[in-house]
Design brief:
The complex is a heterodimer of chains A (256) and B (666). By secondary structure, chain A is of the alpha/beta class. Chain A has one domain: P-loop containing nucleotide triphosphate hydrolases (Rossmann fold), CATH 3.40.50. Helix content of chain A is 38%, strand content 24%. In chain A, strand 9 and strand 10 form a beta hairpin. Chain B has a six-stranded mixed barrel with strand order 2-3-7-4-6-5. Chain B has 19 helices and twelve strands. The two termini of chain B are 25 Å apart. With 666 residues, chain B is α+β, with helices and mostly antiparallel strands. Among the domains of chain B are: 185 residues, no CATH class; 207 residues, no CATH class. Classes of the chains: A alpha/beta (256), B alpha+beta (666). Bound molecules: adenosine-5'-triphosphate (ATP) and magnesium ion (MG).
Chain lengths: 256, 666
């Protein structure tokens, strides 16, 4: 077991208007697992990922990765840990407008002061793999939303992180790019045993996972393990979404 | 709803508004103090001596001050509207009528101004007494400064408040309007390297040549009275400095950053990959402001230098004219002693020196002609026994050397040359004499130049006239009353010397007359009977204090203005710029490294102007303090300026880091 989340909770806002984003979630993730996190908008998926990735501190509870209690870490050590072991694809991409595509993608390597040859090698490799070589000199604000997302993915994957956090990685992609990215994620998951935590609305995307948990109103509602067949798993996810939604307003957007 | 928008935008830019409001209220406070000081009754009572002078000066100064502050407010107030551009554009897209947005721009400004005025008037009320007491202290006046603000002044302040707020709000409303009309988001900065690189190189060249020219100015400055060379040099230096600095900011600094960013081994390591580009972007945005601040700082330093040396010159002149509070000669000493006894003056020190007056002739270098005149001689030991301050402007001599003391032709510049081959009647020729311009007993006690000679020489030399000088220092003044002074009036001139020049010095002689000769002839000299500092001392001290007060006030105000402009420029980043720092944190850049970026940004913004300003203001030292040493006090003044200025840098760094950090924890 690589990641153990124990009874974490998180509130936002002041007393009167407080939002209980995460109420009480416990979770275990094995090394090399591809975990999907699903749930309606506002369920707390992003918040959960942020806390596991040490971007936000939980109000209560512990997060233990590789036997280390990260909630006890100083901010500085958390940042170091984050930089060395984790990769991120954020829902809002979080690309740097001042830098061009190439600089954005190689940023994690540059931050670790890798040598220049390795940087160039990895960069060419990633760009080829994701089919975006022609973007390399462009400025960020000239890109379409989908292009930004794929660039953000390239950045997350360039330094072979041990744990990859992906928040809606396919939300703005066309199905071809989405499939390429998901296949690559699956590949590194299987070959390099990268642990992946991915939040998504999309049942097709979720069907790449080995396990999916459903979050609703700040708690884990249920979970499904991939039986081995993607079609069947896909069905199961769709069904579960129906159950959760229960004709609820959010349900509409999540169905095909 | 609209109230909410205003409130939100005020609280969003809290720190920046706070700094702006504080800077404004400081200006308003100073303005209020200046205005109300002018007709403060205790000031009037204490400074009768000055008549309406103080009032006139404070009114003029406060006018000038108000004008500068107003320009500052227009300029800086616009920052805030610019900052809200995106917000306004979004509101408009959402269908908010344009006039409401314009009204929001208007009222926002009005509210901020009103706040600033409220605090400013408060400052006036609180600090008026303090400032008044400080003024009195500086002027050396022992008088209680009573707080006072007349209704007239209050009314005036109110009028100015209404008027300025109205104008500022309208200006900002117009700015809002223009933002809404010109929709395009941000002006893309053209890099134009083909222009920047040569411009930067040329700028460096200009600055270099200006420095070299300054070096020459140090030497050439003493020719100012008869050659136009120094003036041309000064004009050239000023032009080269001003344009060179701009070109360097425009071309050279971005090029340097660009080159560093191109060298991948430097740029692709750590946060440099981001920070170089970020700095470059910020630099591009701030070029004109940095330049503006640089030039104003240089101007401020130059003015401080000017004020300092001006004050020094006047002070020196005053000191060499009146080294003793009271001085007399052998003819008047008796009367003056009697008068002093009558009013119980507390004497702190008394001095007495014998002098001989003899005839001399020599070739004067500064006049480029032969001079024949009477000269006062004093022995070395007598000279040495006088208080040190009498020797301040003179070259140092030992007991075998000669020192010629003469009137200084110019206020600012002393020419430390020496005089040669001075013939003295019936005494050996003086081959070599050093120069000075501090007359013992004051220049007005003497009719001509003076010579300090070795004791032996003095004892052996004959005298045409013998005299003795007396000097007194008092505790709390000589206390001579008006009546006493009137009585002493008749003793101002002790005696007159008519010189009869013949073909040789030996044949010439001096005729002493007690009565003033009817017809003034060319060769008649007057020996003063007594010399008194009296009112002049008071006037001098008070004027000096007042001068200091005004200069200090203005420099501090200028510093506050410049510092706050820079701070605000740092704080008011574009939205996307501050978001980037947050992004860096999200992908695992350590907080200390992001702090490092903020620090570098602040350092760059504050360090560049002060360095260039210091380089430039060096010239102003060359103009006044050429030739010899750098004066300690000037270094102190510059140091003080730099320290206060860097205080702003530190504050700006702290506040801006706080702002960035706040966003981290969202
Ligand atoms: N910074 C914040 N301040 C206040 N409330 C927040 C903040 N971030 C999230 N929330 C609230 O916490 C809850 C969970 O938000 P979260 O972003 O985790 O949802 P999500 O599951 O990722 O939704 P989506 O599918 O839209 O991405 C929401 O109700 C949201 O309003
Ligand atoms: Mg989310």
């Amino acid at each position: 077991m690589q990641i153990a989340v124990k009874n974490i909770s998180k509130d936002f806002g002041k007393k009167k208007t407080a939002v209980h984003a995460i109420k009480d979630i416990s979770l275990e993730v094995e090394q090399g697992e591809f975990l999907g996190i699903m749930g309606p908008s506002g369920a707390g998926k992003t918040t959960l990922l942020n806390m596991i990735s040490t971007n936000a501190r939980p109000d209560h509870g512990q997060i233990i990765i590789d036997g280390l209690d990260l909630t006890q870490f100083h901010d500085r050590d958390q940042a170091k840990y984050r930089r060395n072991k984790m990769g991120f694809i954020y829902q809002s991409f979080e690309l740097l407008d001042s830098l061009n595509v190439k600089e954005n993608v190689i940023l994690p390597l540059a931050l670790n002061r890798s040598n220049k040859k390795l940087i160039e090698e990895r960069f060419t490799y990633m760009m080829n793999l994701l089919n975006i070589e022609e973007l390399s000199g462009r400025a960020i604000d000239e890109l379409s939303l989908g292009q930004r997302q794929i660039v953000a993915a390239a950045r997350a994957l360039i330094n072979n992180p041990e744990i990859l956090f992906a928040d809606e990685p396919t939300g703005s992609l066309d199905s071809k790019s989405a499939t390429i990215l998901l296949n690559y994620m699956q590949m590194i998951n299987q070959k390099e045993r990268t642990t992946i935590l991915m939040a998504t609305h999309d049942a097709f995307t979720a069907s790449y996972c080995s396990r999916v948990i459903f979050v609703k109103d700040g708690v884990v509602f249920s979970e499904i393990v991939n039986p081995g067949q993607r079609d069947k798993f896909f069905e199961q996810i769709i069904n579960m979404q129906r159950t959760i939604g229960g004709g609820d307003y959010f349900n509409v957007s999540q169905n095909y | 709803m609209y109230r909410k928008i205003i409130r939100r935008s005020l609280s969003n830019m809290r720190d920046s508004y706070l700094i702006y409001i504080l800077a404004c209220s400081f200006a308003i406070g100073v303005f209020g103090i200046l205005i109300s000081m002018g007709d403060n009754p205790s000031l009037r009572n204490a400074l009768r001596l000055w008549d309406t002078f103080i009032y006139d000066i404070t009114v003029t100064m406060s006018g000038l001050f108000a004008f500068c502050a107003f320009v500052y407010m227009i300029y800086v107030g616009g920052f805030f509207i610019k900052q809200q551009r995106n917000e306004f554009l979004t509101f408009e897209k959402l269908g908010m009528p344009r006039w409401i947005l314009v009204a929001i721009g208007f009222f926002q400004t009005a509210i901020v101004q009103a706040l600033a005025w409220l605090i400013g008037i408060g400052l006036t009320l609180i600090f008026q007494k303090f400032m008044g007491m400080m003024l009195f202290y500086l002027m050396g006046v022992r008088f209680n400064f009573a707080m006072h603000i007349s209704l007239n002044d209050l009314w005036l302040l109110l009028e100015i408040f209404v008027f300025s707020t109205l104008v500022l709000s309208i200006i900002n409303a117009i700015k809002t309007m223009r933002i809404l009309q010109k929709k395009q988001r941000k002006v893309i900065i053209k890099t134009r390297w083909w222009l920047r690189i040569p411009a930067g190189a040329f700028g460096i060249l200009l600055l270099f040549s200006a420095q070299i020219c300054t070096f020459y100015l140090f030497k050439d400055m003493r020719m100012i009275s008869y050659s136009s060379k120094p003036l041309i040099e000064i004009v050239y230096i000023m032009g080269a400095d001003i344009f060179g600095t701009y070109l360097v900011y425009f071309g050279f600094l971005p090029t340097i950053l660009n080159v560093m960013q191109k060298i991948h081994s430097v740029a692709y390591s750590g946060v440099n990959i981001f920070s170089f580009k970020y700095m470059k972007e910020r630099l591009f945005q701030n070029i004109s402001i940095l330049w503006f601040v640089t030039e104003l700082s240089a101007l401020a330093l130059a003015l401080l230098t000017f004020c300092y040396f001006g004050y020094q010159a006047v002070h020196q002149n005053y000191n060499s004219a009146y080294p003793f509070e009271l001085a007399a000669n052998k003819d008047t000493v008796k009367v003056i002693r009697e008068e002093l006894q009558k009013n119980n003056a507390k004497i702190k020190g008394r001095y007495k020196t014998e002098v001989k007056i003899n005839l001399v002739s020599y070739y004067s270098k500064s006049n480029e002609s032969y001079v024949r005149q009477p000269m006062t001689f004093m022995s070395y030991s007598a000279y040495k026994s006088l208080p040190k301050r009498m020797r301040k402007g003179n070259s140092k001599i030992n007991s075998h050397q000669f020192l010629k003391i003469d009137y200084n032709s110019s206020l600012m510049y002393n020419n430390p040359t020496s005089e040669h081959n001075i013939e003295v009647k019936n005494a050996p020729m003086i081959q070599d004499a050093k120069m000075g311009y501090s007359f013992p007993y004051g220049s007005s006690m003497h009719f001509g130049p003076m010579m300090i000679v070795p004791n032996k020489y003095y004892q052996k030399m004959p005298a045409e006239v013998k005299d003795t000088f007396y000097g007194w220092d008092f505790k709390k003044g000589d206390r001579l009353s008006h009546d006493q002074l009137e009585r002493l009036g008749g003793y101002r001139d002790a005696y007159y010397m008519k010189v009869d020049f013949k073909s040789s010095l030996e044949k010439s002689n001096i005729e002493v007359m007690k009565k003033e000769p009817n017809k003034y002839e060319a060769a008649t000299y007057t020996q003063a009977g007594f010399l008194r500092q009296g009112n002049l001392k008071k006037r001098f001290n008070q004027g000096g204090g007042f001068y200091l007060f005004i200069v200090a006030l203005f420099s501090v105000a200028l510093l506050v203005a410049l510092g706050s402009v820079l701070t605000l420029r740092v704080l008011l980043r574009d939205d996307y710029q501050s978001r980037q720092l947050r992004t860096l944190q999200k992908i695992g850049v350590e907080e200390s490294e992001i702090k490092g970026i903020v620090r570098r940004e602040n350092t760059l913004t504050f360090l560049i102007p002060i360095i260039f300003a210091l380089i430039q203001s060096y010239t102003s030292i060359a103009m006044f303090d050429f030739g010899h040493h750098m004066s300690k006090n000037i270094i102190l003044i510059y140091g003080g300026y730099v320290v206060l200025y860097s205080l702003f840098g530190v504050i700006s760094y702290q506040v801006s880091w706080r702002g960035v950090k706040q966003k981290f924890n969202l």
